[in-house]
Amino acid sequence: MRVVIVSKTFVADTAQRQLEWLARMPGIELTLITPPEWRSDDGRLLPFTPRFVKGYEVRQLPVWFNGHYHFYLYRGLRRAIRELRPEIVHIDEEPYNPAGMQAQRAADAVGARSVFVAWQNIARSYPAPFARMEQFNYQHTAHVIAGNAAAGEVVRAKGYAGPLSVFSVHGVDPEIYHPQPHTRHDDEFVIGYIGRLVLYKGVGLLIEALRDLPPRCTLHLLGSGPDEAGLRKMAAEQGVAERVRFLPAVPATEVPGALAGMDVLALPSLTQANWKEQFGRVLVEAMACEVAVVGSDSGEIPRVIGDAGLIVPEGDAQALGAALRRLADDAGLRRMYAGRGRERVLEQATQEQVARKIAGVYGEVMAAAAK
Which CATH number applies to 2-171+350-370? Predict the structure, then answer.
């Protein structure tokens, strides 16, 4: 079967290995359509770097409104789809996005079946143009992959009645994300965070919790974002500024090295009216690297961590501090969770496993089309 994946995800070179696995699946002739670069939500311009592209074709198409996740469009997408003549167009976009609508119409124009990926785990009402696009895509797609359980419930509540699979399409390459020798000082307990510096990710709670932890506990914040100045001020007001290190974001390939400098990775996300944690990819990356994890109970986090880390009530700085203290005081507990984390990733979340699930969806789509 000829498959085209339309996605900005694979600008990140560490994600591309999943497509190599997918291209190895019997009967799949794969092409990726992706932008030559993508402006991430922290402002960095990420160029497409073809690191793992064995076995599939890549077409780079420029986009209008680069960096605007819910507004951008591809230039020349319909022409590219017409030239490739796929049987399946895998649309790695929310059904309410213009780029998703654009890809669906291009698929319709060549008689291809489409597969959408949905992550939105809150039942939100959108303005008329987006609501119409969403319903159009629900009516025209052959299959929806929900990246988390709540997203599957949302698409059903909004009227989608077709085939639905629920699994994360974000796998981890265990050859890239693997345990590395620790690089932190033995007399220091390093609490780490990797991501955008925004309050809704719970970064402020980490600073608040740090105040009541022993002086050997430090906090390393890797990333940038609109709340950085406020977080620096908060650290000063809490009297822990000298124990908080603000570090620049690193490329995806350098994340394992950054994790090697941490004793625990924390993601204490806070549910908002229009957002709750949809997955938390940095958690599985840390787990794959045998770094203990602590997360809040926002959205999908508890299902991602399972029994391989500590879960605390979101918004509770005292509970967060208590969980971090437990791990700081008990090296054996850290090792136990670190080991469970990698086992969980190897059992459930490798790129090969995700590729097999996606290939299974393609098979279902083609079988339904043949009836």
Answer: 3.40.50.2000
Question: Residue ranges of the alpha helices (H) in 173-316?
Answer: 203-210, 228-237, 255-259, 281-288, 301-305
For helices 203-210 and 228-237, angle between their N-to-C axes, nearest 10 degrees: 20
pLDDT confidence of residue 185: 75
- 20 and 53 Cβ atoms separated by less than 8 Å: yes
In the chain, ranges of CATH 3.40.50.2000 domains: 2-171+350-370, 189-348
Length of the chain: 371
Residue 328: per-residue pLDDT: 97
Q: What percent of the chain has pLDDT over 70?
A: 100
What was the pLDDT predicted at 257? 96
State the Cα–Cα distance between residues 75 and 85, nearest whole angstrom: 18
Q: What pLDDT is stored for residue 233 in this prediction?
A: 98
**Which two tokens mark 205?**
């709670």
* Predicted local confidence at residue 65, as pLDDT: 96
Q: Using one digit for the tens of pLDDT, what is the confidence trace for 123-140?
A: 999 999 999 999 999 999
CA-CA distance, 39 to 14, in Å (whole number)?
17
Indicate the class that CATH gives domain 189-348.
alpha beta
Q: How far is CA 208 from CA 179, 309, 317, 319, 365, in A?
A: 29, 21, 6, 11, 50
CA distance linking residue 123 with residue 275, whole number of Å:
10
The pLDDT of residue 54: 97
pLDDT value, residue 43: 79
Backbone angles phi, psi at 364, to 5 degrees: -60, -40
Q: Do residues 203 and 230 touch, judged by C-beta distance below 8 A?
A: no
Longest dimension (CA), the chain: 67
Spans of the chain, pLDDT less than 70: none
Output the pLDDT for position 41. Answer: 80
CA neighbor of 289 nearest in space, from 171, 180, 196: 180
Residue 254 CB neighbour total at 10 angstroms: 12
